[in-house]
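[agent] plan:
  1. take the single chain provided in the ticket
  2. run structure prediction with default settings
  3. attach structure tokens to the ticket
  4. add a short note for the reviewer (M.T.)
[agent] executing step 1
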Amino acid sequence: MRRNRVCILSVLTFLFGILFFLPADHAMANSDSVTISPNASNATVTVTVTDADLSGKEISVVCYEPGKTGAVSDLTANKNFIVYINQYTGGQTSSFSFPIRKQLIKGDYTLVITSEKEQIVKTFQMVSDTAAPPSVTQTAKPAAPDPKKDSAKKKLKAPAGVKAKAKGKKKIQVTWKKVSGAKGYIISTATKKNGKYKTKLTVKGGSKKKATLKKMKSGKVYYVKVKAYQLSGKKKIAGKWSKAVKVKVR
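[agent] step 2 finished; step 3 output follows
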């Protein structure tokens, strides 16, 4: 009789073990006490368990990739799971994350949580089965025109009414009509009309209309050109050259 009782207890213990470690397909599904938050951008999954009865208890988590399952009771032999975690819950709510170590694929990942209380099975997706709608690229509105910048894009016209005359010894006085939008003027000279012109003087101020060139060579004939400039930041943007005018230095 006593031996029969021992046999019955052994059988019951064995059956209880089978029930406890049943494959995931036979466990409770879609429990409200488990929330899964997959993050495809960094290939991690966050699991939150909200169950006061599991406070301070040990829970085991197994995650299978799509199309793979296995017996939870044989984790050593089973190679189809992605990650296995032993987690002691610290309170009514326990939240923890783990990485998906293999390449993300479409389909349902299976999460199996086993505790002293029950076994819970839930599924989630890391990559949507349906193609994401094409992203809409919004064209930025063109910036409002800046009068100062736009004016710098237009090349200044050549100064009109350019005249040059000898004034005193070794000096040339140059006059011109001001150019709209100019910030200053550049005066260049050459000893031949179609020769190489070199900058002799830079005049700041768009309203200026005359300047005097000094230290010129006495008795020498010079050809004089003037052009206006504007500013783009600190850079000078020169306009068109005026016609060359001839003058002989005293």
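[agent] step 4 note for reviewer: The helical segments are 2-20, 147-153.
[agent] ticket updated
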